[in-house]
TrEMBL record:
<dbReference type="GO" id="GO:0000976">
    <property type="term" value="F:transcription cis-regulatory region binding"/>
</dbReference>
<dbReference type="InterPro" id="IPR028082">
    <property type="entry name" value="Peripla_BP_I"/>
</dbReference>
<keyword id="KW-0804">Transcription</keyword>
<dbReference type="GO" id="GO:0003700">
    <property type="term" value="F:DNA-binding transcription factor activity"/>
</dbReference>
<feature type="domain" description="HTH lacI-type">
    <location>
        <begin position="4"/>
        <end position="58"/>
    </location>
</feature>
<keyword id="KW-0805">Transcription regulation</keyword>
<keyword id="KW-0472">Membrane</keyword>
<dbReference type="InterPro" id="IPR000843">
    <property type="entry name" value="HTH_LacI"/>
</dbReference>
<protein>
    <submittedName>
        <fullName>LacI family transcriptional regulator</fullName>
    </submittedName>
</protein>
<dbReference type="Pfam" id="PF00356">
    <property type="entry name" value="LacI"/>
</dbReference>
<keyword id="KW-1133">Transmembrane helix</keyword>
<keyword id="KW-0238">DNA-binding</keyword>
<feature type="transmembrane region" description="Helical">
    <location>
        <begin position="63"/>
        <end position="80"/>
    </location>
</feature>
<dbReference type="Pfam" id="PF13407">
    <property type="entry name" value="Peripla_BP_4"/>
</dbReference>
<dbReference type="InterPro" id="IPR010982">
    <property type="entry name" value="Lambda_DNA-bd_dom_sf"/>
</dbReference>
<dbReference type="InterPro" id="IPR025997">
    <property type="entry name" value="SBP_2_dom"/>
</dbReference>
<keyword id="KW-0812">Transmembrane</keyword>
Amino acid sequence: MRRTTLKDLAEMLQISTSTVSRALKDHPDISNAVKMKVKEAAETFNYVPNDFAVNFRKKSSKVIGLIVPEITMFFIPSIINGISSVLNKEGYHFFILSSNDSFETEKEHLETCINSRVDGILISLTNETKDSEHLKKLKEMEIPTIIFDKTVSQNIFQSIVFDNVKNAELCADKLINHGCKNILAIFGDENLEITQSRLVSFENRIKQFPGVTLNIIYCNSTDFVKEKLDIILNDDSIDGFFAMSDETLMGLHSSLIKRSLNNTNKKVVSISEGTLPKYLDETYEYQINDGYEMGTFAATQLLNSIKNPVSGTYEAETTVHHL
C-alpha cells in the first residue's frame, strides 16, 4: 500500500497542502473544524509525517552515523548502549556500520554517512588505519566527528580514550603485590596506539622490580592467544598473567582451563569492560574500562559539537576516567 502524503490528504479534503500541514501542527489560523477533519483523515489513512523532509528543511537529519571496527561480544555492545542512552533522549537516531577491521571499508562507510546527510559521526578506527588523511573531508564539510577508543595521532577531531597508562600500571602493581616473579603479558595488535601505550606503561612499571622477569606476546585474536599459549604454557614457572583486553583474557582463560591451571596460585590480571572476568573466574582481578561510560561521554561530546561548532584543531586526547 502506497504511503499517504500531505498532497493526498489535501486532495481528499479539497484544501491546500499548506492548510493540511498547518492543521496538523495546530496552527492558530486554522479553525477547529478544519483541524478535526484533517486529523481524522490523517488517522484513517495512516498518514505518517516525513521526518526526513522536515529535517532537511531545518538542515538537520537528527541522524548520527556510528562506525566501529567490528561488532563482537567484547566491549562494543556496552558502548552502543551508552551512545543510545544519550542520543535517544535528545531525539536523535543512529545507524551502525561495521568496518570488519578494513580500512577500505571504513572509508566507504564515511562516504555513506556523508551521503546520508548525518548530523555527526562517531568512529572507532580499524587496526589497518594508520593516519587521519581520510578524515579531512569531514572537517572540510563541517561534519562534527568524535573518534573514540581506537585512534591514531591527529589534531582534526576530538579523540576519547581511556587512561591506558594508569590502567596498565595498576595491573602491573597487582601482579607485583601478589608476589609474581615470572610474568607473561598478552597484548593485541602491536601496531595499534592503544597497544603501545599499555605496553610501554606496563613494561616500565615491571622494570622497577629487578627480580621480576617479563615475557611479552602479541595476539590479534582470541584464537591466536590460544595457539601461542599451547606452547608457552609448557613453561610451568610462569606465575602471573596480564591480558590487555577482554578478547585476550578469553583466550588466556581457555588455555588455562585446558591445562587445568585455573585453580592454582597463578595470578591473572586484565584490563576489562568489567563483566567477563566475573563470569570466568572470581579470582581474576581487573581494571575497568567502562564501555557504557565511554559511549555516553562520546555521544554527549558529539552533541555538544553539533550544537556549538568549534573551528580549529585538537591538540590532545580526552581521557575517560572510570568513576
